[in-house]
# Entry
Amino acid sequence: MAAYRPPHIPSSEITPLSAWLNRRQFIAAAGLAAGGLIATKALGAPLTTKPGAYKVDEKTTPREDVTTYNNFYEFGLDKGDPAKLSGDFKPRPWTIKVDGMVAKPATFDIDTLIAEFPLEERIYRMRCVEAWSMVIPWDGFPLAALLDKVEPLGSAKYVAFETIVRPSEMPGQSGLFQSLNWPYVEGLRLDEARHPLTLLAVGLYGETLPNQNGAPIRLVVPWKYGFKGIKSIVRITLTDQQPKNTWQITNPGEYGFYANVNPEVDHPRWSQATERRIGEGGFFSAGARRPTLPFNGYAEDVASLYSGMDLRANF
Ligand code: MTE
# Structure
């Protein structure tokens, strides 16, 4: 096996999201985890899915890019780290606890859920807060289907999500290299969570979700910036309090609760008016920029969720 070398990424490619985190720690972590290096081209098990209700008529981003250009800080800060350093992560056996303000709290085995809910392929436009985008064919089922099983109480207003904490398999979580507070957490309003576009994905491109994309189950909310798509979920809690998300906790001036894609509201450090489509115009080139669409092109479906709200204040 070839020796692992930390990727040489031009400074223009360094994630603005993490620019203020201690990058050197992760390069050291990458070196230590070299023993766990895996081939990133391995395909997952095929899934049985049917075409879903939503698809965008745009070229899908090559699978190679979708699975090697990732943000998953539990495995490192560089875009290539999750594919290189997630080989030791074990997505089975896996359960998700759904609790809080519900009539029937329960813990579900992932394979039981996959057997119970028909999997749909949804081709979604995805827009990262860092101003790049992809088009990804996800395989999954609506979050609403899972929420229905636990019967949310009338008092529940929000849904909080939590990622697994497993430092022995996630080098970015180990005490020595820790940067964010773990677990990674996210939240949605209950009506956003129940919206038919909101998906729990267990696969992409018709195959089991690769570790670096959030195996075995992750959230996909296509009208919000990518950081809302919490990966490797182990707990979902219904609550009457607005839950904080990891980036809001870390840097509240820059990241809000809603995180709706909005070309008119700039991030404090960069414009959100345009985006670079990954896989177009060369992997590391600036490529042609395209305009970013309100609600990432899903305004017709979701704008009514926010009628009367000031989306500059509620960013
Ligand atoms: N979930 C966890 N647990 N940890 C993370 O670091 N990164 C988020 C989100 N979910 C992240 C996470 C960010 S910033 C983005 S852009 C998307 O995952 C990226 O998903 P992808 O790698 O499948 O494109």
